[in-house]
Structures are given as structure tokens and as C-alpha cells.
Amino acid sequence: MPTPFDDSVPVRGDVPMSLHPDSLLGIGAALNQPDTLGVTVLSAAREGLRLCYDLFGRMNDAERDLQAIAAPARRRQHPVERGGRTEISGDVRMVKGKPTRVVDATEFIAAAEQAFARVSPAIDRRVKELNGYRQTLETRVATALDHPTRKTAEGLALAAEVRAHIKAMKKPEQRMQFVAQAVDGGDVATVAAVIHAQPFLSGLTPETHATLRARAAAQFAPVDNAQLAATDAALQRLTASSSALVKRYGDILAMRDAPAAKAAKSLKSLGEAGR
User: Are 141 and 221 in contact (CB under 8 A)?
Assistant: First the structure.
């Protein structure tokens, strides 16, 4: 049976590995569970990263080939008696501290704009899709941590008594141990009474309250809870990759300010004069 990891993407040395779909391998085990929502989450996340990785690489290829057809820079080494400095001449300027050949990048920029306009919405759709899956998993976990009668009059009264009983315990560790035993024993009614109320009502600190909720989630909804955490990680990875792609795209757009690009634009404008 095919898995989300079957769509192999070649690794490139000129594209950050964090953009590669296989960077999700660390969270793949939690998501790649048959007949769970995680498989769909993993597939969507990998597709989003693949789009980022592919476009980033194509941009690099185009710029590399553009530079390859540019006039070569000329390097001249002055004698020691004349200072021994290295002089680089030709269509060269310093870009981020490195001598870079200046080329007419008008077509390159236009192509990058067209590609980004096509791919960017697809990446945004994957992010939106993942957010939807996350919401579904979050709802499932919340449901597993609740009790059907908690919001009834009888349930509310019982929950108040449970919290009062816990709060009356003298030591904080006794309170935590009591709730932890309820979690381990599958006592959803007791656990729900505590985690669905403010921590101080049970005499707990916010940190202890959060720890007990996490323990309950792992106990009562182990698969959905693990996949919720993995989905959060996948969303963070895809968002970061999208930001890296936007930055790469911004570097290309900045080439409009290069002398050759400005000259090409001016020449085109001159040729269209009087039309």
C-alpha cells in the first residue's frame, strides 16, 4: 500500500534541507498510521513542502543559467609594489559582500513572478488544509477529555464537589497524585471536572494543571493527541519553508534595481515612445 513517503524528491545541495519533504521524517511515525487522519495530514504537509522545495530549486537553476551566459568578469592582480590589490572589472558589483556579475534579469524576474503567482496559492491551500485537520484533531481530543454529563445540573454539582475535595487536600503533591490516579484509572468524570475548570478551583497551579491535562490527553486520546502535536510541528515547518521561499523570491525581485535591469527597462520604454 502506498505511503506519503513514496513520493521521493531528489535532494539538492543548493536548497535548504528544512524545505525538503523528508524533513518531516521525525514526525512521520505519529502521522503515518493507517486509517487515521494523520496519513492525510502527512500527505498535505509533504505536498506543501515539495512545492516550496521545487520552486526554490527552479529559481536557483534559472539564476545559475542566467549568470552562465553573462560576460565573464576580469580579475587583475596588481604587483606588490603597487599595493598588491586584486581588481575585478566588467559588469560586476558587490552583492552581500561578494563580487557578482550584473546581468539583465528582466525575463528572469518576470518568469519568477509568474511561477510564484501559480505556486504560492497552492502552498496557502495546503496551510489552510492543515489548519482544518488540526482543528478536527483538537476537537477530538477535547471530546475525549470530557464527560457526557458534565454540563448537566447533576454533573455540575458533582464536578464542584470533586474540585472542593481536591482543594481541601493539604499538600500540592497530594492533589496532583489524586488527579493522576484518576487519569491512570480512566476516571473521565473526575478528570473532566478538574481540567475543564480554572486551576485554582482545584488548588492547582497553572503548570500542574497543564501537565495533568497533557497526561490525560495522552491517556484518553493517544493517537489523536500525538497526531495533533505532529500536525502543529508540520504546520510550523511548512510556514517556515514558505517564509524562506518568499525571502528567495524577494531577492530575485530586488534584481530590478541592478543597473542592467534598469537599462533594459529604459531601453524598452524608449523603443515604445510615440506608439
Answer: yes
Whether 271 shows a pLDDT value over 90: the answer reads no
Confirm if 199 and 205 have CB atoms less than 8 A apart.
yes
Paired sense of beta strands 92-95 and 86-89, if any: unpaired
Query: How many degrees, rounded to 5, is the angle at CA 232 between CA 227 and CA 233?
Result: 95
Which candidate, 111, 126, 49, 121, places its Cα nearest to that of 249? 111
Q: Are residues 208 and 172 in contact, defined by beta-carbon separation less than 8 angstroms?
A: yes
**192: part of which helix (H) or strand (E)?**
helix 188-195
pLDDT digits (tens, 9 = 90+) for 215-251: 999 999 999 999 999 999 999 999 999 999 999 999 9
CA atoms within 13 A on the CB side of 73: 17
Instruction: Please check whether residue 19 is in contact with residue 48, taking contact to mean a CB–CB distance below 8 angstroms.
Output: no
Task: State the Cα–Cα distance between residues 213 and 34, nearest whole angstrom.
Answer: 27
Contacts of 62 (CB under 8 A, 6+ apart): 108, 111, 112
Q: What are phi and psi of 24, to 5 degrees?
A: -90, 0
Side chain identity, residue 166: I
Instruction: Categorize the per-residue pLDDT at 105 as very low, low, confident or very high, splitting at 50, 70 and 90.
Output: confident
The residues near 76 (Cβ < 8 Å, ≥ 6 apart) are: 86, 87, 88, 89
Measured between alpha carbons, how far apart are the two ends of the chain, in Å?
A: 62
d(Cα 222, Cα 183) in Å, to the nearest integer? 13
Residue 110, Cα to own-chain centre: how many angstroms? 27
Q: Render pLDDT for 164-189 as a digit per residue (tens, 0 to 9).
A: 999 999 999 999 999 999 999 999 99
State pTM to two decimals: 0.79
